[in-house]
Design goal:
The complex is a heterodimer of chains A (302) and B (608). Chain A is α/β, with parallel strands linked by helices and 302 residues long. Chain A has ten helices and nine strands. Chain A has an eight-stranded mixed beta sheet, with helices on both faces. In chain B, helix 7 runs antiparallel to helix 8. Helix content of chain B is 36%, strand content 19%. In chain B, strand 21, helix 19 and strand 22 form a beta-alpha-beta unit. Chain B is globular. In chain B, strands 11-10-12-13-15-14-20 form a seven-stranded mixed beta sheet, with helices on both faces. Chain B has a six-stranded mixed beta sheet with strand order 3-4-2-5-6-7, with helices on both faces. In chain B, strands 19-18-21-22 form a four-stranded parallel beta sheet, sandwiched between helices. With 608 residues, chain B is an alpha/beta fold. The chains are: A alpha/beta (302), B alpha/beta (608). At the A-B interface, strand 2, helix 2, helix 4, helix 9 and helix 10 of A face helix 1, strand 9, helix 9, helix 11 and helix 12 of B. Strand 2 of chain A pairs parallel with strand 17 of chain B.
Chain lengths: 302, 608
């Protein structure tokens, strides 16, 4: 363990937090800031990169390096940073529109490559910053500004998508569940490779109560435990078994019953960054540029 | 048994055949032999986007043109003197381009009824007198190749037939007295894993060479003496190879690791492939999921202190524009290479054009100024890449570097640069100095902001696409601040230091030709033609399109007439007319082929 001793306060930037009062993002920010000292890293070694949306304002509030980039592109930008700077801890903060709609392609490719990124997807099942249109995780029938007759889009299941994309770490947490969220962050941080964390987040302005069943009732929060049966479903959890993770990912509010929180999948696979670094390390010597430009057939004119 | 040798000062040869006939390889080898002969040369590979169009069809014809001379030349040649046609389609597709009385070498074995029909010939042009105006050498290339290889064991008849391009190369190598050793070595290396194929190709090559020596069809051999180029050590190089080397050089000169984000696209892919080979230079290449991610990853690498580069062609560059806009706002270095091809949309992927100039200048939302420069020749891509990186790193800005499909694939002799003579690129990352860190406090001279990379203690800061308050970089919606920041970004780019515009002036000239990018060769060749005829004309070729050289207005105003030839509908023309209020005129042709010197000369003639 490193001897860097920091506290939550060290990770608060001087910027005024500007989410709507009551937004679930406040709880997530507090949990992340409070978890950061556990990384044992100096602040300058940590980078938060986001796209566009309410969640994407997150980096402004972290006293680390940060970039608020463009809609959906954070995983791509973070990939370039992570593979050139293996000394950094790189975190991506995104939302359901950012990660699953405009940025869906970047998300699945970052996950399949297993780039060493920690991806936190704040899922509130609504477009907040653009004032309440349905998102790719909104349920069918959802009435919003852009779906006055109810949404006819079938929603993505973010966990199943991540699992299908070949993610090596997949977990879920709830915004106001500080202990559960912190536990997942701890596991994600310890994972070498891409870690995907869906965080149920309440938008109290445009989609209030979406997760009320577990947000309001602490006793209804049900956690996954490796090797144990999940909530009387007969499914014995195995973090290394893909089929089990898929099966657990299908348990939803819509079907009633317990909603799993915690780590769905955690397996080891070499990360893209490490594989690239290994190829660089294996390259013979330091290149001779003069020899390179003079390579091939040459002739001299005197 | 030597034949008489006739001296020529220059020759243009076009090799043409099916996409699968190996014409690019044949032309490339002939070019290498020619380079080793010390001639000046220029090449123009011209191939379809389809990998293998139906055999024998007109769309499947692939060509490689090489111009070589005993003097300094600038273009692959307007009108080929010699056409090597491997089938009827190759003859039909290329005949109209030849100079009157040109030499034809055709593979008679390929002139079957079926192939003639596929090429749209009613009867064989070899028999109907339609080629009477040409010197026709009808050679049964395929059957002679197959016959020569019948004793090479382990080679199938199909493989033997495929060696016919080496027969043709051997014949041409004899005809023009080319040194053959490099090709023989090349074949041994290329087919090292299949020695029987190597043997077959070598034998086909030697048979073709011997056929030239002995056949009565060829009465004379030609010689093109070495050109008097500037002293030095030379190699041949294509634009994409030179550009790749230039990026590696920029990495060395700046001391920053090179990161390339790219997505495969014609005609830029070979930059990705070239750079992927050079991990011993610390080069990281990332083949992204799309053009957007390629640019994004490069910008992410720049944020971390690497030299971030993304390469593409127009249809990919258009997807990168939001990332370039972000780089404008973040004020981070980024080099974006646009190897232009004919458009719009998918257009003609393998053909050159200059249609992207206004896109890279203006194709972003709002006021998003970006420096733009263009390479002029294949070898110049090396220096243009270094200059692009220098400006990007010095001014913390995205920079567009324009090349095109002609420069990308065309080859020319290249005087090998002395790396130690290249000026270092001075990059200084921000360091804590005890004062409050202000991420948008600018260098008073360059207006560049500090580049504080993650990992630097005490300089933790957040940047983003939202408008920033001057100096602090905090999010700001203040009206006056936005006006100020817009002005500062514009001033920074306008203030990029670029060399004054050199002019190839001629005493008494009152017409100036102003060109840019990959047209340098044919435009300057056109200028020379006018001068040889006694006409007076000046020529200026722009490297920087944004900002323009400070003296450009004075240069333009010192001539009565200004001609701007472009392979677009007048994009630079529009810029100089708007900027300098001069009545410049354009010469605009958008054919997907490089300009010919003759058409440029004719356009100049009209103004004299």
């Amino acid at each position: 363990m490193s001897d860097v001793k920091l506290t939550m306060k060290d990770f608060k930037s001087d910027q005024e937090v500007r989410w709507c009062p009551g937004c679930g993002d406040y709880a997530i920010l507090a949990a992340v800031q409070s978890f950061m000292p556990e990384l044992g890293l100096e602040r300058e070694k940590i980078v938060f990169i986001s796209g566009i949306g309410c969640a994407a304002r997150f980096p402004y509030y972290m006293q680390t390096y940060g970039m608020h980039s463009i809609h959906g592109r954070a995983p791509a930008i973070a990939t370039g940073l992570a593979v050139t700077r293996p000394d950094l801890s790189v975190w991506v903060v995104t939302g359901d529109g950012d990660a699953l709609s405009i940025g869906g392609n970047h998300l699945i490719h970052a996950l399949r490559r297993n780039v060493n990124l920690k991806i936190l997807l704040f899922n509130n099942r609504i477009y907040g910053l653009t004032k309440g249109q349905y998102s790719p995780t909104s349920g069918q029938g959802k009435v919003t500004g852009s779906t006055p007759a109810g949404s006819i889009d079938y929603p993505f299941n973010p966990l199943a998508l991540a699992l299908g994309a070949g993610a090596t770490f997949v977990a879920r947490a709830l915004d106001v569940d500080k202990a559960g969220l912190t536990g997942v962050l701890r596991r994600a941080a310890a994972h070498r490779g891409a870690a995907f964390v869906e965080i149920f987040q309440n938008c109290n302005i445009y989609n209030d109560g979406e997760f009320a069943a577990i947000r309001e009732d602490r006793d209804a929060r049900t956690y996954l435990a490796h090797g144990e049966e999940f909530a009387g479903t007969g499914i014995v959890h195995d973090e290394t078994d893909l089929s089990t993770a898929f099966e657990l990912a299908q348990l939803s509010f819509e079907h009633g019953g317990a909603i799993p929180l915690g780590v769905f999948r955690d397996v080891d696979r070499p990360s893209y960054d490490d594989l690239l670094q290994a190829q660089l390390d294996a390259a013979p010597g330091e290149g001779d540029l003069q020899a390179l430009v003079a390579s091939g057939d040459t002739w001299t004119i005197s | 048994m030597s034949k008489p040798v006739e001296q020529l000062d220059s020759v243009v040869i076009r090799f043409a055949g099916d996409s699968g006939d190996g014409m690019q390889l044949t032309g490339g080898r002939f070019t290498s032999e020619t380079a080793l002969s010390g001639n000046d040369l220029a090449t123009f590979p011209d191939f379809p986007a389809e990998i293998r169009a139906p055999a024998g069809s007109l769309p499947g014809v692939s060509g490689f043109q090489v111009h070589f001379a005993d003097h300094d030349i600038l273009t692959p040649g307007d009108l080929p003197d010699v056409l090597v046609a491997m089938n009827p389609a190759a003859l039909k597709a290329n005949l109209r381009d030849l100079r009157p009385g040109a030499t034809l070498i055709v593979d008679t074995d390929a002139f079957t009824d079926r192939n003639l029909q596929k090429a749209g010939y009613a009867g064989s042009p070899l028999d109907d007198g339609s080629l009477d105006g040409y010197q026709v050498h009808a050679v049964p290339l395929t059957s002679m190749t197959v016959g020569a290889l019948k004793d090479v064991s382990g080679v199938t008849p199909r493989e033997a037939e495929r060696a016919k391009n080496m027969f043709a190369l051997g014949l041409m190598s004899w005809l023009y007295g080319r040194p053959v050793e490099s090709t023989l070595e090349f074949l041994q290396t290329k087919f090292a894993k299949r020695p029987e194929i190597a043997e077959a190709n070598v034998k086909a090559f030697n048979t073709g060479y011997a056929f030239g020596e002995t056949s009565e069809s060829f009465a004379v051999q030609y010689e093109v003496r070495p050109a008097k180029l500037a002293p030095g050590r030379y190699r041949q190089i294509t634009g994409n190879a030179a550009l790749s080397y230039g990026l590696i050089a920029a990495s060395r000169l700046s001391g920053l690791p090179l990161f390339l984000g790219a997505y495969p696209i014609t005609p830029a892919s070979s930059i990705l492939e070239e750079l992927a080979k050079h991990k011993s230079f610390g080069v990281r290449t990332f083949q992204a999921e799309d053009e957007i991610a390629a640019a994004g990853a490069a910008l992410g690498a720049s944020f971390g202190g690497a030299l971030g580069v993304t390469t593409s062609a127009g249809p990919g560059v258009v997807l990168k524009s939001e990332t370039v806009g972000l780089a404008v706002a973040l004020e981070l270095p980024l080099v974006i290479v646009d190897v232009q091809r004919a458009g719009p949309s998918t257009g003609m992927p393998t053909k050159p054009e200059q249609g992207d100039l206004l896109m890279v200048l203006h194709g972003r939302n709002s006021e998003s100024p970006v420096p733009v420069l263009a390479a002029g020749t294949p070898g110049d891509c090396f220096y243009a890449a270094i200059e692009a990186a220098r400006v990007a790193l010095t001014y913390r800005t995205p920079v567009y570097l324009l090349s095109d499909a002609y420069l990308a694939n065309g080859a020319e002799p290249w005087r090998i640069p002395d790396i130690s003579s290249l000026a270092p690129i001075d990059v200084r990352f921000a360091e804590p100095d005890g004062d409050e860190f202000l991420p948008y406090r600018r260098d008073p001279e360059t207006l560049a902001r500090p580049w504080a990379i993650p990992g630097t203690p005490g300089l933790e800061h957040r940047i983003g696409g939202l408008e920033k308050a001057n100096e602090t970089g905090n999010v700001s919606y203040d009206p006056e601040n936005h006006d100020l920041m817009t002005q500062l970004r514009a001033q920074k780019v306008a203030g990029v230091k670029v060399d004054d515009q050199p002019v190839d002036h001629q005493e008494g000239a009152d017409v100036l030709v102003l060109s840019w990018g990959g047209t340098f060769g044919p435009v300057h060749a056109g200028v020379r033609r006018i001068r040889r005829r006694g006409g007076k004309v000046a020529h200026a070729h722009l490297r920087w399109l944004n900002p323009f050289p400070a003296n450009l207005g004075d240069v333009l105003r010192s001539y009565d007439r200004v001609l701007v030839p472009e392979m677009n509908l007048g994009q630079l023309l529009q810029l100089v007319r708007a900027r300098f209020l001069i009545d410049a005129v354009g010469y605009n042709r958008v054919t997907g082929r490089p300009f010919k010197a003759a058409e440029i000369a004719a356009a100049i003639e009209d103004l004299l």
